[in-house]
Amino acid sequence: MAERFHKPARIPNDHFEYHVGGEDPAVTLRRAHESAAALLARARQTTDEGVVDRLLTHTDEHGLDLVAQLWAAAGPHTLPGALWRLYLLRTAVRDDPNGAALAYRTGAAALSTIDPVVAGASEPTGPEQISALADEILRGVFQGDLGSALERASAYCRICAVGWAELADARDPADPEHATALTARAARFDSFGDDLDQAARLERRDQLT
Fold first, then answer.
1. Calpha distance 144→205 (Å, rounded)
2. C-alpha distances out from residue 127 to 123, 148, 202, Å
3. Residue 207 to residues 1, 61, 117, 126: CA-CA distances in angstroms?
4. Per-domain boundaries in the chain
5. Cβ(29)–Cβ(81) under 8 Å?
6. Record's superkingdom (predicted)?
């Protein structure tokens, strides 16, 4: 999907539109689960910081194509499905840190939940801070507690969902079409938040595979 957004809420949508096909679904899913488990095991067993750094920044250099081919078809409440969503979120932040920071600040200000505490972005939350948060969450998958990383990502998504919805309401009188696009983005973040929350719960029960 082409980028149609303008300041102060420019949001690239194309990363959320991947489709995978052309291969036996059973083979695709088996490969997704095996590759996700192998990658996570390698990252957690290595003492080489460079390995984790390369995993973290792979999509910066090579885009999302390989990650999409491996994991985009996996169910949302699986390890590969969760990893896919985390890479999508980080890439969206890298593409538009200003928009991501705006949505986060707006959502955090509107919420009365502990989600901003769980997500853990530094304040004041600008482009650098939101980029650092995205890196911290994905790095936590490889080096920290996977359940905590998923919980932070889920909280981040809920905050941004509220933020985009608030921005949509503010934009609606002047630009209803833009507001509709922002509302759709809010719904996607809300869905991602639910998926990652469920993945975190499964991980806590040692059932995320």
1. 17
2. 11, 23, 32
3. 35, 32, 26, 36
4. 14-204
5. no
6. Bacteria
CA-closest candidate to residue 189, choices 72, 93, 79: 93
Burial label for 127, CB within 10 Å (0-12, 13-18, 19+), is: middle
**Helix boundaries (H) for the chain:** 25-45, 49-62, 65-71, 79-95, 97-110, 115-119, 127-143, 146-171, 176-204
How confident is the model at residue 21, as a pLDDT? 52
CA dihedral 20, 23, 27, 30 (to 10 degrees): -10
pLDDT of residue 49: 87
Fill in the DSSP letter of residue 13: -
**Alpha-carbon distance 79 to 23, whole Å?**
20
| Local mean pLDDT, 10-residue blocks, the chain (209 residues) | 40 50 79 95 90 91 92 96 97 97 98 98 97 97 96 98 98 97 98 98 97
N- to C-terminal Cα distance for the chain?
A: 31
Query: Can you read off the two tokens belonging to residue 90?
Result: 């980080």
In sequence order, which residues have a C-beta less than 8 Å from that of residue 28 and are 6 or more positions away? 20, 73
pLDDT for res 201? 98
Query: Which single residue is written with the structure tokens 């801070």?
Result: 129
